[in-house]
Amino acid sequence: MPYVAGTGGIDDVYHSGNVYVNNVLVATWQPPGQSASFAGSTPEGPVEESPANVTVNQTKYNNYVQNPSASKNPAAAANGVKENYPGTPESGEDGASLPPNSNASATDVASFLSKILEEAKRGMWRESGQGGKPSNPNIVGIWKDLGYAQTNAYWTTDQTPWCMGFVNFALKRSGYRYCQEASSWAIRNKPSRWNATPVPVNQGQPGDIVLWDFGHVNFIYQGGNGKYTFCGGNQTPSSGKNNNPNDGDVTVSWPSGWTTNRGGIAGIWRPSKA
Description:
Elements lengths: L2 E2 L4 E2 L3 E8 L2 E5 L22 H16 L7 H5 L18 E2 L10 H13 L15 H10 L16 H11 L4 E2 L6 H4 L7 E3 L9 E4 L4 E8 L2 E9 L13 E11 L5 E6 L4
Antiparallel strand pairs: 1-2, 3-4, 5-6, 7-12, 8-9, 8-12, 9-10, 10-11
């Protein structure tokens, strides 16, 4: 492995999501391949973040990378999200609300998610930037595509919680209205930016946006009548044993089915192609 002079450590090492030796995941020197979901996608214009949000987000990111375990979140872990979860960045509606993209790569959210999950099985969406190692370029690519400035360190790493970035990227590439938005709470605070319609918790359907009460956001992937599985980014890897509370991926959570009596959902919204 490449040696980093003066540190006693290594660099340029990425996680493999599906290669094991003696039941231990192998590290690789090469980054994962670029996701096909970026093909034909034009990056948005730059998001003009307020100075206050830049300060808050940089501080939050610095604190997390210095001590991830301080962000231990049992509710996140119980619902298929990485256990050390500090919550999504602040936004203050700095970014734009944008109409459906005419150059979408999928016709609906569920089919887009199925394609991404196939890539995830090959390790293409696994976080790799823990401890200052190189980040997964597909995850960083979401922030680039949504117009977040690569001059701010927290948009150049896969260690910034990226679940809302993934939601908006998925909406964009599936032909729905989307926003330049990183905060999960924004969908609850102003769903009109997405032209999204609130849906009773027992009436969700695949492709609906789900906000959890600990600040994570993902999609209903399969199910109906109040029993669902979910798919999103920044979630606990599903391949093999995962004892790393700092590790995230695109996965299906609640694969056996979540039911309304379990609670934990703050709201569900149906996105719009209008």
